[in-house]
Write a structure and sequence with these properties.
The protein is mainly alpha-helical. The chain has two helices and two strands. The chain has a two-stranded antiparallel ribbon with strand order 1-2. Helix 1 packs across helix 2. The chain is elongated. The model has no long low-confidence stretch (mean pLDDT 77).
């Protein structure tokens, strides 16, 4: 569940200006929690998966910002180091 939620949030990241609601369902084996039936994921599990997905995205953004600063690509490169268009 956690990985599925993370993937959905990453895929939606490009269109941040649009709201979306994540709906999750699952099917387990006959011996699993749904006993082979297609059901909605329990609210507690979905909320935890969404919380962790959002946290992972925030961490990824911070890591990208840190990497850009370390590489000198934060917009402050000397004129001779900039690529021409």
């Amino acid at each position: 569940m956690r990985e599925a939620a993370r993937i959905m949030y990453i895929a939606h990241e490009d269109s941040k200006d649009k709201e979306f609601e994540l709906e999750m369902t699952w099917v387990s084996s006959m011996s699993g929690p749904t006993k082979g039936r297609h059901e909605e994921v329990p609210k507690e599990l979905q909320e935890e998966a969404e919380r962790l997905a959002k946290k992972a995205l925030e961490g990824d953004e911070e890591d990208e910002d840190d990497a850009a600063k370390e590489a000198g690509t934060a917009g402050d490169a000397p004129a001779g180091d900039r690529m021409e268009e």
